[in-house]
Design goal:
With about 375 residues, the protein is of the alpha+beta class. It has a single domain, classed as Ribonuclease H-like superfamily/Ribonuclease H (Nucleotidyltransferase, domain 5, 2-Layer Sandwich), CATH 3.30.420. It contains 13 helices and 12 strands. It has helices at about 10-15, 30-40, 155-170, 195-205, 230-235, 245-260, 260-280, 295-300, 310-320, 325-340, 345-350, 360-365, 370-380, and strands spanning about 45-50, 50-55, 60-70, 100-105, 110, 115-120, 120-125, 130, 145-150, 180-185, 210-215, 310. The protein has a 5-stranded mixed sheet. Strands 1-2-12 form a 3-stranded antiparallel sheet. It has a two-stranded antiparallel ribbon with strand order 5-6. The longest helix has 20 residues, at about 260-280. It is globular, with a radius of gyration of 23 Å. This is DDE-1 domain-containing protein. One of its GO terms (molecular function) is nucleic acid binding. InterPro entries: RNaseH_sf (IPR036397).
Length: about 375
């Protein structure tokens, strides 16, 4: 229908329409919802009789991985009249260079002892190695060390935690703050179990009391990196044109430094809002992420440390939790995860975290521990 053919009724109807972006979310079972509900309830604190708020999460460090690409497959440009649009080509979308990064963040705060801000950005690390070039090119002779992405297997991920993430937390953690710290990771298959001896040793050495824990399965809305912080980094990273792996690393590291710590603080408040909605929706993820107008509140000095929770919603959540036999839900979830993560599925998921989809010998060995690992992971969620 042409615009001139629209009646006034049609135009009024169009004005009443709302723009809504729909994102595909993980499908949740009843067991998933019960575990998510319990997780959110555990972060509720009583501020006064009948008044609830959420844990400010000052003792939490969230870790997660993300691919960063040299360019997007689909890119939007604003051109001047008559300007020729760029012509971008590649052999296949699979040939677009990319690098996997592991990032760790905590909640920003003022440190009275040091008299300065702790920005919460623990660090970001790339899964790469230097490999001698097999053939000469116009850019370098054969034998030159070239930065190459590596497959992220459980041993590789564990090595990154022990040698980089945990030491960085100990170095950058605010002086005078509690050394009781929880490292939260998602349910990705290469992630190491909290009961691993090397992890326990790294977390407890030097008088620290760190603990690695899993967030509930299928719950990216419970990790601040997935709630906007990675997106903020990606937006800045894409401002730079990248031709090589080294370019991607440089652009991503620069974006990491440029992201304002207040953005990270806002992401932690968004996480609290999500947990409130999870309770309101009985563990389901069908809610729309609420907006607090955090920028307006921050500009006026009224940005809260923690989100206040509706007492009726919290009471409703407690009643649901009391009526749920969590042991049964745990066994149900263990069976569901075990069924969905058979050898083929596990290999497929490992390929998503690899560079070329090939599993090495270490990755194959990790598959043999699947069943026992599933039980250990779910036990650490509950």
């Amino acid at each position: 229908m042409r615009a001139k053919d629209l009646t006034n009724t049609d135009r009024n109807a169009i004005l009443l329409l709302e723009l809504y972006s729909s994102t595909v979310k993980p499908q949740l079972t009843d067991a998933n919802k019960a575990v998510r509900l319990q997780w959110a309830i555990e972060h509720v604190r009583s501020a006064a009789p009948g008044t609830y708020t959420f844990d400010p999460l000052y003792d939490s460090v969230h870790v997660d991985e993300k691919w960063f690409f040299a360019t997007r497959v689909k890119q939007t440009y604003y051109l001047a009249p008559g300007e020729k649009p760029p012509h971008r080509t590649c052999k296949s979308k699979r040939f677009i260079k990319k690098v996997m990064f592991l990032s760790a963040v905590a909640r920003p705060r003022w440190n009275d002892e040091s008299g300065e801000w702790f920005d919460g950005k623990i660090g970001t690390w790339h899964f790469t190695e230097l490999v001698p070039a097999e053939r000469s090119s116009r850019n370098r002779p054969a034998g030159t060390l070239v930065t190459t992405p590596v497959a992220v297997t459980r041993p590789v991920y564990k090595d990154m935690l022990v040698k980089h993430v945990i030491p960085a937390i100990k170095t950058k953690w605010p002086k005078g703050a509690s050394r009781r710290v929880f490292l939260q990771q998602d349910f990705a298959k290469p992630h190491v179990a909290p009961t691993d001896d090397d992890i326990i040793e790294a977390c407890s050495s030097g008088g620290w009391a760190m603990e690695l824990k899993f967030q509930p399965p299928n719950s990216p809305d419970l990790n601040v990196l997935d709630l906007g912080f990675f997106r903020s980094i990606q937006t800045i990273q894409e401002e730079n044109f990248s031709r090589s792996v080294d370019d991607i690393i440089a652009a991503t590291d620069n974006a990491w430094r440029r992201v304002d710590m207040m953005t990270l603080n806002s992401n932690f408040l968004t996480l609290q809002c999500c947990m409130l909605e999870i309770i309101r929706f009985a563990g389901c993820n069908s809610y729309k992420i609420p907006h607090m107008r955090k920028n307006v509140l921050s500009a006026s000095g009224r940005l809260p440390e923690s989100v206040m929770a509706d007492g009726d919603v919290i009471d409703y959540g407690f009643s649901l939790l009391c009526a749920t036999v969590m042991e049964e839900k745990f066994l149900q979830l263990a069976a569901e995860v075990s069924e969905s993560l058979d050898m083929a599925d596990f290999s497929s998921e490992m390929e998503k975290l690899s560079v070329d989809g090939d599993l090495d010998e270490e990755g194959d060995n990790a598959l043999d521990e699947l069943d026992a690992e599933l039980i250990r992971r779910l036990e650490n969620v509950l």
